[in-house]
Amino acid sequence: MLMLLLLLGPSSGLGALVSQDPRTAVCKSGTSVMIKCHSVGIQATTVFWYRQFPEQGLTLMATSNVDSKAAYEQGFSETEFSISHPNTTFSSLTVMSVKPADSSLYFCSASNTALGRDQRLRQEPCQQPPSSPPHRTPGALWKELRREKNHSFSD
């Protein structure tokens, strides 16, 4: 058996609501599972589909505009992840022929601005800030930054 965790709950902001169902799905390897994304209070002309593995950030899988073929990111394809976006209130992602590596959280998000083919979002790797030496406490670092600021602006 394979477990796909699909959604923690609906999200909303600025009066718009995007929800997914089913909340969770357990299925056998080789079967398919459809995740539905519904929007209320927003004309979802563009829908973004993400996947997140435990202890990792979100990975953009694909972007779709209403009634258009989805644009897939590298490593994702229509044969594995079929996307339908027939109108501004509904989109679906079907994980085809599920395998254990597909166990993950899946998320959709919506925008009321359509993106042209040349305006696709690009996901950049997250850059970690340089780490401080372990002996510096947050208080010491704060004092150092204040000293640098005062030094650079002194007359």
Write the layout of secondary structure elements.
Layout: E1 2-5, E2 11-13, E3 16-21, E4 24-27, E5 33-40, E6 46-52, E7 59-65, E8 71-72, E9 81-87, E10 90-95, E11 105-111, H1 138-152
Antiparallel strand pairs: 1-4, 2-3, 3-5, 5-10, 6-7, 6-11, 7-8, 9-10
Biased composition (Basic and acidic residues): 143-155
Region (Disordered): 118-155
Signal peptide: 1-15
Could you please describe the fold and organization of this structure?
The structure is a single chain. The protein starts with a strand and ends with a helix. Helix content is 10%, strand content 39%. The protein is built from one helix and eleven strands. A hairpin with a 6-residue loop joins strand 6 and strand 7 (59-65). The strands form three sheets. The chain has a five-stranded antiparallel sheet, with no helix packed on it. A four-stranded antiparallel sheet has the order 8-7-6-11, with no helix packed on it. The protein has 155 residues and is mostly beta strands. Residues 1-13 and 151-155 have low confidence and may be disordered.
